[in-house]
Amino acid sequence: MRIPNTVENGIKIGVSLPPDYLAGRQSGIYRESLGHPAEFLERLKQHGVDSVELRSLHSVAAPEKAVEAAMRIEDAGMNCTAHGSLPSSDEAAVLDASVKALSEELHLASPEKPLLITIHARRSKNSSTAEMAGQTEKTLTFLIKQAESEGLTLQWAIELTRCKGAQDPGAMPRTLLELVEQIDRPDVGICLDIGHCHSNVLRGFHNFSFKDAFLKRVVHVHAHDIGPRGQTHFPLTCGNLPLNEYGLLLVRNGYGGIMNLELSPARFAGFFDLQEAFFESVRTLKSLESPRQP
Ligand SMILES: [Zn+2]
User: Fold this and answer.
1) How far is the CA of 2 from the centre of ligand 1 (A)?
2) Which residues lie near ion ligand 1 (Cβ < 5 Å)?
3) What is the pLDDT of residues 161-172, one digit of tens each?
4) Gap from CA of 264 to ligand 1 centroid (Å)
5) What is the CATH code of the structural domain delimited by 12-288?
6) What distance in Å separates the CA atoms of residue 224 and residue 51, rounded to the nearest whole number?
7) Could you tell me the distance, in angstroms and rounded to a whole number, from the CA of residue 193 to the centre of ligand 1?
8) How far is Cα 53 from Cα 221, in angstroms, rounded to an integer?
9) Residue 1 CA, ligand 1 centroid: distance in Å
10) What is the pLDDT of residues 182-231, one digit of tens each?
11) What percent of the chain has pLDDT over 70?
12) CA distances from 59 to 24, 51, 76, 151, 273 (A)
């Protein structure tokens, strides 16, 4: 049977950029290497990028900056997603002001389209994974109710994280699926971070094997390569990530969302030119438009 390619599945290419840079503030390496944000967005668009993720919302000093960043993305005719975070304790469980402001801004242009927001599950060194899953569900459910009462439309994606030794329900496909099934809402799915996932596979934490139920719950994808010393968030030119295999897996399961490039320039400064890192990585992602059959 012929496998439909990513274009037929409607997969879109995204990139993560800091909201401060997009809002026009001087923000170190980004402004120095990429130039004016409006011009850089235009060039990304010419390279086939459809979507930009604000990474991360908690890094912005004020909600107005998140809105300014979103307006810049809208002006470029691109889709906007966000990387947020869960409050670290139940006492502080209030919906982030930037999420609220951003959702309201984007709602004006596309009332039907929810704002996709990626978060990490709550994790801890001391509690059990089950306890942290319970806390994640409780906090997230509280935030969802709050968003609903404010009339906000959000699509949440809980990310598959890198195994770091903490009790983290997001760090294994099995526990992440259990968490999402436990919450069991259409507006709460999985962000499959294939860079984290493959780092976990290479370090023996889990296999390259995923239940259909897990893949069916994927609503967003993060992509980044693995550097020479196992560092994540490197450009997709390192060749340590079997991108085609992940692409095929997603395409076979009918994934039609965004594949979002998530780079951490501070980790590879000195090895790669940042502009080239973006454009070469985007070209690599675009080459998935015709993934080979095995
Ligand atoms: Zn990620």
Assistant:
1) 31
2) 193, 222, 262
3) 999 988 999 999
4) 10
5) 3.20.20.150
6) 16
7) 5
8) 11
9) 32
10) 999 999 999 999 999 999 999 999 999 999 999 999 999 999 999 999 99
11) 93
12) 14, 20, 22, 25, 24
